[in-house]
Amino acid sequence: xxxxxxxxSGRGSNxxxxxxxxxxxxxxxxxxxxxxxxxxxxxxxxxxxxxxxxLWVGGKGxxxxxxxxxxxxxxxxxxxxxxxxxxxxxxxxxxxxxxFPERILNIHPSLLPAFPGLHAQRQALEHGVKFAGCTxxxxxxxxxxxxxxxxxxxxxxxxxxxxxxxxxxxxxxxRIYAEAIALVLNEEYRIENRRVIG
Length: 198
Ligand code: GAR
What we know:
By secondary structure, this protein is an alpha/beta fold.
């Protein structure tokens, strides 16, 4: 059984969706460890309540490389095959990316390459786009810049607020993240230049 390491910083609804897909038998994998950079991330408490291993790996006083090294140790200790960033709000550096080549996924709440970085849904509203969405991509050394595995688009309604748009996008996040994880775990894809085929 392939082992997932889930990294989160907040609520953890994407983590819960992954756990639900596993429980339903829609995703063949197990969650080996859930890690947060924040001790009080609600997602950590949820993981514990589900009986999963949940760890706080704080980064205070550590450089990016040192923090990455710490994460790598914990992930390797738990024999993780695939790292899933699920609302993990700390940037990973080259040390981490090189330790897990093509084995770190991220979910981002925009149709990349539009609106990378923080507050993607707010950026989309402020720009006035008519469609927004979400992206699952491989993590490379840039910010939200790696090869795109899955995307889903949703309409932007005239009366949308950041909250209503985010909720519409989140439903799609929960669906495409599990699909992308399955694709990568089953190695049913290939990458041609930047294009993920599969
Ligand atoms: C999700 O919308 C995710 O796409 C976003 O944070 C939220 C986490 O929600 N991630 C980023 O913005 C990464 N740049 P969750 O904790 O309920 O999964």
